[in-house]
Amino acid sequence: MRYIVRRPKPEELSDIKAQIPDLEKQLGKADANLKRFVPYHFTELRSAHYMLLTRKTDTGWIWVCPTIEFNAENEEGLCALSDHFKVPRPGHLTSP
Question: Quick one: CA dihedral 23, 25, 31, 36, positive or negative?
Fold first, then answer.
């Protein structure tokens, strides 16, 4: 199952860097029109995929992460990922 959530502060990457210490190395230098998908695996069947894009600011290009895609084996796994990331569970799911 897949579920995509929006991050409230896409320019804040400290929580992602805490999970993926070499994030900056994986992304490389920010420049025009770049996009990267960085996976983080919790188990063989549960993972989060960070979508990172570049955004132009007054001082140059920066990386931002507007969304995270959750992948899980079932509804229970998807709810566990939602709880881990402290986002509301998908309303259409029945798992407690």
Answer: negative
Neighbour order of strands in the sheet with 60-71: 2-6, 60-71, 47-57, 35-41
Q: Which residue, among 77, 83, 1, 85, has the nearest Cα to 50 in the 3D structure?
A: 85
Asked if residue 36 lies in contact with residue 88, where contact means CB atoms within 8 angstroms, the answer is no
19 near 50, Cβ under 8 Å?
Answer: no
How many alpha carbons lie under 13 Å from residue 21 in its C-beta half-sphere? 0
Q: Is the pTM of this model over 0.70?
A: yes
Task: Tell me if 39 sits within 8 A of 48, measured CB to CB.
Answer: yes
The tens digit of pLDDT for each residue in 28-57 reads 999 999 999 999 999 999 999 999 999 999
Measure the CA–CA gap between 30 and 24, rounded to whole angstroms.
10
User: Are the C-beta atoms of residues 67 and 51 closer than 8 Å to each other?
Assistant: yes
